[in-house]
Design brief:
Layout: H1 3-25, H2 27-31, H3 37-49, H4 51-55, H5 67-76, H6 81-105, H7 114-126, H8 141-152, H9 162-178, H10 180-183, H11 186-195, H12 199-225, H13 237-253, H14 256-264, H15 273-295, H16 298-317, H17 330-346, H18 350-370
Length: 391
């Protein structure tokens, strides 16, 4: 078998498996479509105000720009309510395939080998942190484009042609205009350029800066010019504990296993349980920091910086003062898994390599089990749950 034929076979099998998993999780999404309530507001606005206003609509429930959602709902506004639901759903599927195709066809300093790329796709598709809350609705592609912005950060363009380089810049701008999560990664793009100075990294940073500034001025306009009231920017101890559970714990062990050990055993009711968890988390954080200083791996450091940026934003920007899970934990969760994956790839120490390998194996296995069969929120995978009436 020639190399080209092997590559074609590899791609066919990969895309077939991805397609099967997408259909398997919720066939009704692809046959009936859905409209979440705020997603319907995008569609309704575009239908009543036209294409131009629809493309540049800023939903007042979010106060930031969701360009991909605008594109999907504006295009759907040319069609009836029932057809529009399907159209926006397939736009979500298209966003997934854009990310997966980029991972497969573009060079990356993080995903070097074919099995690295397959692993990355599976993590984005069904790892435990990819909550059903963000499945299919085009309004929640913001989390996927946040993940995409992180993946784009590690583009390795030294052997790529100009078309691929231009495409990467385009995807960076698209991601940053479609997701407030992406905007938070702009400092990481600058750090990459600062330490790896070349014309390509300069353009990638400039693309990220452009998208970030657009989002920044929109957000500033709502919160400071229009003085919008909000319950965000409040942090309680419960919020920190919620983040610890929903990111470090759920990323690798899902919901079923931790709930069994923590709730069924009633261990969480122990007097100093919360304090113990916070102390352990602080100790682990400093141990990781020491490990990074000693390891001196630029890619690993860049992943860690990205994790800190996104996690800080998740804690500060969460709508609730005592909760940082669900959609707020998605991007942090994916970055953390890739952080452990990088350790597994780099590490020569047998204990650390085995430990990190076990963690990423758990993430894949538990994620696949909870993908549909043991989903923590099975109702979100039924189209009836998302039904709204056309008014």
């Amino acid at each position: 078998m020639s190399i080209s034929l092997k590559k074609i076979s590899f791609l066919l099998i990969t895309f077939s498996v991805i397609s099967f998993l997408i259909v398997y999780r919720g066939p009704c999404f692809l046959t009936e479509g859905i409209f979440e309530i705020n997603e319907y507001q995008f569609y309704k606005y575009a239908k009543e105000n036209g294409v131009f206003k629809g493309l540049f609509f800023v939903y007042e429930g979010a106060y930031y720009f969701k360009f991909w959602t605008n594109i999907a709902t504006t295009f759907a506004s040319f069609f009836s309510f029932e057809k529009a639901k399907l159209i926006t759903t397939y736009f979500s599927v298209a966003a997934y395939f854009i990310i997966f195709s980029y991972i497969l066809f573009f060079d990356s300093s993080l995903f070097i080998k074919d099995w690295h790329k397959i692993f990355a796709i599976f993590i984005v598709l069904f790892s435990p942190g990819m909550t059903p809350e963000i499945w299919m609705g085009s309004a929640h592609t913001r989390e996927y484009f946040g993940i995409f912005a992180f993946i784009l950060l590690f583009n390795d363009c030294k052997n790529e042609n100009n078309i691929k380089k231009i495409s990467t810049n385009f995807f960076i701008i698209l991601s940053f205009l479609s997701s407030v999560w992406a905007m938070i990664l702009a400092p990481a793009y600058f750090i990459k350029f600062y330490f790896k100075r070349n014309i390509d990294n300069l353009f990638f940073f400039m693309s990220s800066l452009f998208g970030s500034l657009v989002q920044f001025f929109i957000i500033m306009n709502f919160y400071f010019v229009d003085s919008v009231g909000t319950s965000r920017f409040q942090i309680q101890v419960e919020k920190i504990l919620s983040f610890i559970y929903n990111v470090p714990v759920r990323s690798f062990f899902g919901s079923t296993i931790p709930k069994f050990f923590l709730i069924e055993s009633n261990i969480i009711s122990l007097k100093y349980f919360n304090l113990t968890i916070i102390i352990i988390s602080i100790i682990l954080f400093f141990l990781i920091f020491i490990y990074l200083v000693r390891k001196k791996d630029f890619i690993l450091n860049l992943i860690f910086i990205s994790f800190i940026l996104i996690s800080s934003f998740a804690l500060v920007g969460s709508l609730y003062s005592d909760f940082a899970g669900g959609r707020y934990a998605v991007v942090s969760s994916i970055i953390l898994i890739f952080f452990v994956f990088r350790i597994f790839v780099l590490e020569n120490n047998l204990i650390l390599k085995c430990f990190s390998g076990i963690l990423i194996m758990f993430s894949l296995i538990v994620g696949l089990v909870e993908y549909k069969y043991k989903s923590p929120l099975p109702e979100l995978l039924t189209c009836k749950y998302h039904e709204i009436q056309n008014n």
